[in-house]
Amino acid sequence: MMKVKKLTARERRLGRETISVSCESVGLDSAVYHAALRYLFDRPVPEKGGQEWYWDIDEPEFEATPLQWTHIQTVLFANAGNDLAPYSDDQVGMGLNHVMSNNAGDIPHMVNDPTVPLDDAMRMVRALPTLWRDCLGPRLSAAEPSTIGSRSDRLYFVSYMWFDVWPTFWNAKHSPEWQDAMWRVFCEMLAMPFREAQVSALHGIGHEGNYLNRPKELQAHMEAFIRQVKNDDELKTYAQAAARGMVQ
Question: How many structural domains are present in the chain?
């Protein structure tokens, strides 16, 4: 397994820039944001065999416009390390699953709504890597190393499957701005010192790489990533498969 390395000066700077995102900076009422946090994460974990709260047909929907949901996600991604600290891994996994998947709701479609300005959408995407840098990466690194894709807990599922089930980029995959933004997301995540962040990015590249519209640049970046992987044959093999678009 790869050893966890310290953040570089550039990574720390990027982290500080993203963390500076706040309710005030995006024009979101902080009361709406904190109500959304409670709605998504302050939930009981179901017993084995039980269903998550969002499958309850009587569960009221959270009242927010597409632009508000975009801002909620922006602030959440940028501040997940602090704002999700009170919640357990299972609670975080449940809430983020509802954010990334359209199985039981429309949250991931909100940013694609035509009423959401492109600048606001791009700000949300720029904040996305910080979800791994400050929250998912550190939390998942605390567990024992495991084979890629083998864990079944909620938090790992969210990290591993995000770019597989997240419909947001798929809905905008022909937009040059979205292509550029997602390319930067994947590059940032591959540069993180967290193996699970790298695996998530590789999984995403394996599924979405063709839509980034930069085949030569992607190939060169993947070759460089593979060369720097040391003492982790599984990760190297997975990266090689992702570069060919052959991941599960």
Answer: 1
